[in-house]
Amino acid sequence: MGEKGYEGTERHSNSLEHAGADASRYAIENPGLPPHRPRLADEDPKAAKRAERQVSIMFLISIVGTVLFFIGYFGVGQIGNNEAFSTIFLQNLLLGLGTALAMLGIGIGIVHWAKTLMPDHETVEERHEIRTEADRVAATGMITDIIDESQIKRRPLLRNTLIGAILLAPLPFIAVFRDLDNTDNFADNAAENFGPERLRHTMWAEGVRLVRDPTGSPIKASDVTLGSAMHVIPEGLNEVEHGKLNEKAKAVVLVMRLDPSKVQISPGREDWNVDGIFAYSKVCTHVGCPIALYEQHTHHLLCPCHQSTFDLAQECKPIFGPASHALPQLPISVDDEGFLVAQSDFHEPVGPVYWERG
User: Fold this and answer.
1) 203 vs 227, 244, 254, 333, 336, CA distance in Å?
2) Nearest to 106 by CA among 72, 71, 65
3) What is the pLDDT along the chain (358 residues), one digit of tens a residue?
4) For 7, which DSSP code?
5) DSSP code for 355
6) Could you give the C-alpha distances from 354 to 110, 196, 217, 285, in angstroms and in order?
7) Beta partners for 256?
8) Alpha-carbon distance 279 to 217, whole Å?
9) How far is the C-alpha of 329 from the C-alpha of 253, rounded, in Å?
10) Within 10 Å of residue 41's Cβ, how many Cβ atoms?
């Protein structure tokens, strides 16, 4: 608290400082940039050459990783052909190791390049007015400076190994996308295989029996009790050799039974179930993860990847999570022997909802 002086003016205690009394005393001077500490590669040409070789080695490791990927992908054999476990293990090892080396080699190489060879001087630029022509000149100058500072013109070994690594690194991903189709005439059917039609057709067809996964035993309607859930595949899938995993990934379904009076059935789907036995695709419509959990009391199906929840009582409509589309329903009936069979294939593509599906 201030005190009143003899002349009625307020005076302040010496223990307090008041803003505005003498602002110049408290101004902080610009400390400037810290002194630049040159790196070893800045002063020693041998160290710079050694750093260049190290970066090039990382790019070469990336190239080797890409080669390992293709050795595992094309040389070891296809996973879907009932290979021995040791062969599958070796192939997965080469695929994972090759992809990791391809990506890490480029990443670590570029970081090491920037830390050891590119200029690291601190600079300060004054703000200036924005002018179109000036901006164009400045942008051109910046690009020129970047090219000069990267020393990519003066170091052809770096340039060539980087170009090779960048050109080869995307090839594993192209190969993976290409293998979405297992037909020999992939090039002729590329538009169909990358479109929604690729996921529209599965092994389900009229009269195909529903069998347990993985035993392959057929299912009678009387085997499905109220509140139960079964993982089901089409009969004959276990005999498929080429593309078995791809076919299973598309065709696997969940079969559940609940009180038909608790289900909202859309017009036209009245005969798609058998006394409350429903079959729905097990593939989540978000990113294609397998639906793994059925809650009997709530009639909910849960996806473990991103917690999308589907309500079986509402024809597997999504009620929570990122999925935006209901699980496709497989129309089923019973044959003369009482076994569950499909009436047809799915009436819509299974799996993630792409923009082409509307």
Assistant:
1) 27, 11, 15, 16, 21
2) 65
3) 444 444 444 444 444 445 444 555 556 777 777 888 888 888 899 999 999 999 999 999 999 999 998 898 888 855 444 456 788 888 889 989 999 999 999 999 999 998 998 888 777 777 666 566 777 788 888 888 888 877 878 888 888 888 888 888 887 777 666 555 444 444 445 445 445 555 667 889 999 999 998 888 999 999 999 988 899 999 988 776 555 667 888 899 999 999 888 899 999 999 999 999 999 999 999 888 999 789 988 999 999 989 999 999 999 999 999 998 999 999 999 999 999 999 999 998 888 876 555 4
4) T
5) G
6) 35, 7, 34, 9
7) 229, 278
8) 17
9) 9
10) 18
Tokens for 289, please give them: 């993860």
Report the amino acid identity of residue 46: K
Least Cα distance to 280 among 308, 252, 245, 319 occurs for 252
Handedness of CA 107, 111, 117, 122 (dihedral sign): positive
Both tokens of residue 47? 């160290």
